[in-house]
Write a structure and sequence with these properties.
heterotrimer; A alpha/beta (about 160); B mainly alpha (about 350); C alpha+beta (about 400); A: about 160 residues; alpha/beta; Beta Polymerase, domain 2; five-stranded mixed β-sheet; two-stranded parallel sheet; 4 helices; about 25% helix; about 25% strand; globular; C: about 400 residues; alpha+beta; Cytochrome-c3 Hydrogenase, chain B; three-stranded antiparallel β-sheet
């Protein structure tokens, strides 16, 4: 399925795609609202035409005032097509339904996203810290969490070319 | 070497040699036990060094080269000195009395085993018991208790798993060992070890008892926890099994017992199957003990070779092999031996 | 494994529960449930000879049977993604060498390919061929390491030494070209740091012949070995659908029966111009994973030999590159088939010389998340066999 065909199919089948995006390199992104996150994901998983059976990764990007953009990258080994499912959540109290019911592999990725950004994944069976130590406080990948070593001391490497 | 083999002759003639009165049986016994201790302390070192070097050359490397200047011959002596001067650590949660006694429980039977093993003709042994074979196999099975004690007292779950595996394995493989030995005893008509060697005048027992030989060597490997049967010590899984928490001289005792066990069970296999000190008929001038040591060396080489080659069997596969295959074969072996003994 | 589900045992992650493989051993579960045995919690790691680094598994055991396994990771978390946000792209190339340190070249490739696609830079032919060649040598290095260590965990000591003997020679070769034995930092945005030294291709062809010849040792010592087969055939079976759900890629997915290899499905560099196969396993058990590894080495050597003939003369950088690499605004997900699986970098650029966000998709992270699925109903020695066959590097898991 080509990128355009995929986008049209998903829009038609779910009616929940807010916005689509095809980059100059041909990569596809589907923007949905957090409420429709699970609906669209389920369609992508279950529909035999789409068949996005491989859960590649899930993460977020700090978009400052706009909130966090949560991205789930899915892949179909049968049609060799990849799709980025994106949604925006607010900075405080953002919550996205979990995808662990559809793909078991989402478990680790959602845990990491939760601890790094502070985004809640509603319905995740075991949302505890994955990579960070137990007593760690804060969400490191947020932009307001500064990298202390860089704050304390300027990068000691080669001079920056201007 | 020659004056040792002259001891019985000297004793007969009531001579005094080097200040010792050989007609006194207590002196004789004391000297023989001293000889056993010397052999016990040096033979495992030889096998250990051979293992270092043989494994190294099979693995495209050199092995010890520094200790003692010439190809690292003193490596194990250096290791011994290192172990003696190490700090003696007993884990705080360990059962101290049992923890300390366990290495002794493994070491003492290993030493006692050498008392009955004959190395050469004409009294080149410490004690010729009428029940020699029975004594040897019985005493070698006491070390299971030491292994269990070490694993339990260590207060470490890995040690416990190792000890339980070890206990199961050693008990399972006692049977094929004993049954194979029993077939040899039937063939020779005696349980005395020198007697068994004497009975191999015409042909070595390995020929009629080829299956028994295979069983005996395999079961010995399992008794010693040597690869491919080293599940109890599987060092990539349970660190070092029952010996995990041991350091210093206690650990050295365990290792010494293991290598002494290799030597002892090899001598036993040589005595039972490979003709003991009997050489090949046309090379009469080589004395008996050298023949024994040469055969033991060949068997030790084979054991070390197996370590370099095979991964280890899983515990349940090991148990299946013992109970389902080796014991029936051993029983059939005894049956056939009995039949042939009666018929021929 | 019928007596265990819902036996009131608290498992760590309930999504892992249904449908465990549990094959390989048929145990008397009905008999053992008559005895009130206590479960034992055993910690494998973080310091353990077999866990390829600081991975900790908390295992609930009944005797030697595993009821539940939870991997505890993060002991080596260094915050790569945060660090990447304060480094410019040249520094990032040096940084990404270090998460999957056994396939460092492949990691670099992911970053440079992504940035080059964003900036629409045309990489010269010679640079692309050299990149292909070195990437395949890196793959051989990595696979040799895992072949050796898998044997070691099962108790076979010797293949480890043979593997390292081969690796020494290959590392010497790569050091001649890049200056590094493990962390290469040879790629640059647009091409390479410098050209290959004189005599490199000759040495590389000689070495390819030698390594191919010595591969026969592994076949005898491991693939054909009775005990090895007993320890690995039928152990840790991974069905293809489950592998895909967990996001497993690389040799593990190929062993499970899915021929997904981005060198074939989405060719990058010069992979569309060389001839090679993707080995696919049948059963998805540990033996198949090992076999796939062995076959991948053979195929990589084939690619290496083809590259020798096809490298053209020419420049390795496309003219004068700006000192400050500033990709235009946008995002890209660039993936390469690294030795352990699919390594991908999701780079978000806002026009600066540092990325706004760089998400590293590492193969080991997904592979390790799959371990609890493989481990239920399995004995402790098989745990080691499974762990050794699920290829991962802890730096890759934790970043």
């Amino acid at each position: 399925m080509s990128a355009k065909a995929l986008i049209d199919h998903v829009k038609e089948a779910t009616g929940a795609v807010e916005r689509e995006e095809v980059t100059p390199q041909g990569q596809v992104a589907l923007h949905v609202t957090p409420a429709n996150w699970h609906v669209v994901a389920e369609h992508l998983r279950r529909c035999p035409r789409c068949n996005f059976s491989m859960f590649n990764w899930l993460s977020a990007v700090d978009m400052e005032d706009d909130g966090f953009e949560v991205i789930a990258h899915l892949y179909s080994a049968s049609s060799l097509q990849a799709v980025n499912l994106k949604t925006m959540v607010p900075r405080e109290g953002g919550s996205v339904p979990t995808l662990t019911g559809l793909w078991r592999g989402a478990s680790f990725h959602e845990r990491e996203c939760w601890e790094m950004f502070g985004i809640d994944f509603a319905g995740h069976p075991h949302l505890v810290k994955l990579l960070l130590a137990e007593p760690f406080v804060g969400n490191p990948l947020r932009k307001e969490f500064v990298l202390m070593t860089r704050e304390a001391k300027e990068w000691p490497g080669a001079k920056e070319p201007e | 070497m020659t004056h040792l083999s002259m001891i019985p002759a000297i004793a007969e003639s009531h001579n005094v040699f080097l200040g010792f009165d050989f007609s006194n049986p207590w002196v004789l016994l004391g000297l023989k036990l001293a000889a056993v201790m010397v052999f016990f302390l040096t033979a495992p070192l030889g096998v250990g060094y051979a293992e270092h070097k043989i494994l190294a050359h099979m693995q495209a490397r050199l092995g010890p080269m520094e200790a003692g200047r010439f190809h690292g011959w003193a490596q194990l002596i250096a290791d011994g000195v290192k172990f003696i001067q190490k700090e003696d650590i007993v884990p705080s949660a360990a059962d101290k009395a049992v923890f300390v006694i366990a290495p002794a429980m493994v070491l003492v039977p290993a030493i006692m085993l050498f008392v009955v093993l004959p190395l050469g003709p004409n009294g080149f042994w410490v004690e010729n018991m009428d029940l020699g074979l029975f004594f040897a196999l019985a005493i070698s099975s006491i070390s299971v208790i030491g292994m269990l004690a070490a694993g339990w007292a260590s207060a470490n779950k890995f040690s416990l798993i190792g000890a339980i595996r070890g206990a199961a394995q050693l008990i399972a493989y006692e049977l094929p060992l004993v049954l194979a030995g029993a077939a040899v005893a039937m063939q020779a008509g005696t349980l005395s070890l020198p007697g068994i060697v004497e009975a191999q005048q015409n042909y070595w027992f390995v020929f009629p008892q080829i299956f028994g030989f295979g069983l005996f060597v395999t079961a010995s490997l399992a008794e010693l926890s040597r690869p491919p049967f080293d599940m109890p010590i599987a060092d990539s899984e349970i660190i070092f099994g029952h010996m995990t928490e041991y350091t210093g001289i206690k650990f050295a005792f365990f290792l010494l017992a293991e290598y002494a066990g290799i030597v002892a069970l090899s001598i036993l296999a040589v005595v039972l199957y490979l003709g003991g000190w009997q050489g090949l008929p046309f090379i009469n001038f080589i004395p008996g003990p050298l023949w024994t040591l040469a055969k033991v060396g060949a068997l030790a080489f084979f054991i070390i070779w197996l370590r370099a080659t095979y991964p280890r069997l899983r515990e349940d596969q090991l148990q299946k092999m013992a109970w389902k295959y080796m014991i029936p074969i051993a029983l059939v072996n005894i049956l056939l031996t009995g039949i042939f003994k009666v018929v021929f | 494994m019928a007596g265990r589900e819902g036996a009131g045992v608290a498992v760590s992650d309930p999504t892992m529960l249904p449908g465990g493989p549990g094959e390989g051993i048929a145990l008397d579960v009905a008999g053992s449930s008559r005895f009130a045995t206590e479960e034992m919690i055993l910690n494998i790691g973080p310091q353990h000879p077999s866990t390829h680094g600081v991975l900790r598994m908390v295992i609930t055991l009944d005797g030697e049977l595993i009821i539940d396994a939870e991997p505890v990771i993060g002991y080596m978390h260094r915050g790569f993604e945060k660090m990447a946000e304060v480094r410019d792209y040249r520094q990032i190339i040096a940084l990404v060498n270090r998460h999957d340190w056994l396939s460092a070249f492949g990691n670099e490739l992911g970053v440079v390919l992504g940035v080059e696609a964003l900036m629409e830079i045309e990489v010269p032919e010679r640079a692309q061929w050299i990149r292909t060649l070195l990437a395949e040598w890196n793959r051989v290095l990595n696979h040799l390491m895992f072949m050796g260590s898998f044997g070691l965990e099962l108790g076979a000591m010797t293949p480890m030494f043979y593997a390292f003997r081969e690796r020494e020679e290959i590392q010497g070769l790569l050091e001649a070209a890049t200056g590094g034995r493990m962390h290469f930092t040879y790629n640059r945005i647009g091409g390479l740091k410098e050209d290959l030294p004189r005599g490199f291709l000759k040495e590389s062809s000689r070495l390819a012949k030698v390594v191919r010849h010595r591969l026969g040792d592994y076949e005898g010592l491991l693939l054909g070995n009775e005990i090895f087969k007993k320890r690995t055939v039928g152990i840790g079976k991974l069905p293809a659908a489950v592998a895909l759900e967990y996001g497993c890629t690389g040799p593990i997915l190929q062993a499970a029966g899915v021929a997904e290899d981005s060198r074939k499905t989405e060719p990058y560099l010069k992979y569309s111009e060389v001839d090679f196969e993707v080995p696919v396993g049948e059963n998805g058990d540990s033996f198949d994973r090992f076999w796939v590894l062995y076959r991948r080495i053979e195929e990589s050597l084939k690619i290496v030999e083809q590259c020798h003939d096809k490298i053209p003369a020419g420049p390795i950088m496309p003219g004068k590159m700006p000192k400050n690499i500033k990709p235009p605004e946008g995002w890209i997900y660039s993936r390469t088939e690294n030795s352990l699986g699919e390594t991908g970098y999701y780079i978000v650029s806002r026009g600066g010389k540092e990325p706004w966000r760089m998400k590293m998709r590492t193969p080991s992270f997904s592979n390790v998340s799959m371990i609890p699925y493989l481990l239920r109903g399995v004995l402790v020695p098989d745990l080691i066999s499974v762990l050794g066959s699920v290829f991962f590097v802890v730096g890759d898991v934790d970043r």
